[in-house]
Amino acid sequence: MSGLIMKDISFSYLDGFCLHQLSLMVEKGEMVAVLGPNGSGKTTLIKLAAGVLTPERGEVLLGEARMRKLSRRQIAQRVAVVPQYLNIPFAFTVAEVVMLGRTPFIKALSGEGENDHSIARRAMELTGMEQFSRRTFNELSGGERQKSILAMALAQEPKLLLLDEPTAHLDINHQVEILELIKGLNREQGITVLGAMHDLNLAALYFDRLVLLKEGAIFAQGPPATVLTAKTIYDVFGATVHIEQHPSAEVPHIVILPKKSNLR
């Protein structure tokens, strides 16, 4: 059963950039990373999968449901997004931010119920944020904020979790913590994950399948060892690399080589 189908998707901005007849299927319970240079269409693809953008041509399906036929509330009851940064202008506590994830399920004027609070508490427990529940969100470290955002997404009880470079501004330890959490949720709860990633090595280590974009089209896709070769990386990124075997996993590890003109 598919978690997400993007069929012959085309989308363009006023500046001319476009995704052209892109097709992608993410199976239920699969964990897929979208890679590519800046401007290749990673974030646009995530926004189309989230229903934030509407394709000019083609169709997006969540399971058997056509996204065009779903309301914003119905989409939010099935899909959650973890962005690379979330601006919270008010002095919300972590608990209040996480409770925002229950918004699609709360009827107007009724307020949160005990079930909503129970789900939010569970989301904070899963992400290790229960001890920070009374802390102000904007006073947290970058890694703690990102785990709070992930907890908010989990409070939506999503079938599909979308990631838009969620580790881009984090230090190495927090990058690993966030991806370990997401990988564990994928394995233990069967949440389908589609993430735009910037770091090729982290993508290879934590995602089952990689989709490599170039100029708005899929250049390659498959297991990390198939997609991340020295040739494909040069063809897409223009970078010269050496590929090694990761010392503790059966995935490639990429070593960036400097330009010959910069060698001493």
What key phrases describe this protein's structure?
264 residues, 2 domains, six-stranded mixed sheet, four-stranded antiparallel sheet, 9 helices, 32% helix
Tell me what the structure shows:
The protein has nine helices and twelve strands. It is an alpha/beta fold. The strands form three sheets. A six-stranded mixed beta sheet has the order 6-7-8-3-9-10, sandwiched between helices. The chain has a four-stranded antiparallel beta sheet with strand order 2-1-4-5, covered by helices on one side. Strands 11-12 form a two-stranded antiparallel sheet. The radius of gyration is 19 Å and the shape is globular. The protein starts with a strand and ends in an 8-residue tail after the last strand. The mean pLDDT is 92.
In the CATH hierarchy, the third-tier topology of the largest domain is known as Rossmann fold
What is the number of E strands?
12
Number of helices: 9
Structural class: alpha/beta
Low-confidence stretches: none
Q: What's the structural domain tally?
A: 2
Proportion in helices: 25-40%
Intertermini distance: 54 Å
The succession of helices and strands, N to C, reads EEEHEEHEHHHEHEHEEHHEE
Looking at the overall shape, the CATH architecture of the largest domain is: 3-Layer(aba) Sandwich
User: Strand-residue fraction?
Assistant: 25-35%
Q: What is the C-level CATH assignment of the largest domain?
A: Alpha Beta
Strand order across the largest sheet: 6-7-8-3-9-10
Question: Averaging pLDDT over every residue, what do you get?
Answer: 92
Radius of gyration based on Cα positions: 19 Å
